[in-house]
Amino acid sequence: MKGGNIRWRQLVTADAGGQIFDLVARIYPICRSITGNGVRNTLQEIRKHIPLEIHEVPTGTAVFDWTIPREWNIRDAYIKNARGEKVVEFAMSNLHVMSYSVPVRKVMSLSELKGHIYTLPSQPDLIPYRTSYYSENWAFCMAHRQFECSSKACRTEPMRS
User: Fold this and answer.
1) What is the DSSP letter of 87?
2) CB under 8 Å, gap of 24 or more: what pairs does 21-29 form?
3) 66 pairs with which residues across the strands?
4) CA 87, CA 58: separation in Å to the nearest integer?
5) Are 149 and 81 in contact (CB under 8 A)?
6) Residue 2 reports pLDDT greater than 60
């Protein structure tokens, strides 16, 4: 196999499996979408192992039939119930927040909040993956079995970007 300047035989070592596992353990927790610091951090980790030339393309650039969306970065987001307990939180799974959600901090009724929660009723133990690249929206995603809030008012904390 040939691939640019990479010498594939140099990449294959006696502990290649362990090295790959270690790399995955470092990059798996990084929250990344198609833009943002998560992508940069992931590519920097990969660059430690193979030669990699990184190019950044500005938001709004047309690429074939696609337009590069705005950059999205998130630090934290969660839903608290009326007792102040976190019901859903980004820190537990980056799938809990719809990618490209806009920041929101609001006290609302459970019925209003439900309009911003996605589940998979047919797969009640899985968290869906949702995105909103091109529209200003926000949502949380959670396992359908977890989709119960013990009070009538839930509160979201800010999605800090």
Assistant:
1) E
2) 23/49
3) 63
4) 36
5) yes
6) no
* 9-52 pLDDT tens trace: 666 677 888 888 999 999 998 988 889 999 999 999 999 988 99
What CATH topology corresponds to 78-156?
Glucose Oxidase; domain 1 (3.50.30)
Which pTM does this prediction carry? Answer: 0.75
Where do the CATH 3.50.30.90 domains begin and end in the chain? 78-156
Counts for the chain of helices (H) and strands (E), in that order: 4, 8
Per the listing, tokens 């938001």 go with 59
Would you say the C-alpha torsion 102, 105, 106, 109 has a positive or negative sign? positive
* C-beta of residue 101 within 8 angstroms of C-beta of residue 138: yes
Give pLDDT tens digits for 92-139. 999 999 999 999 999 998 889 999 999 999 999 999 999 998 899 999
* Apex 36 CA angle, 98 and 68, nearest 5: 85
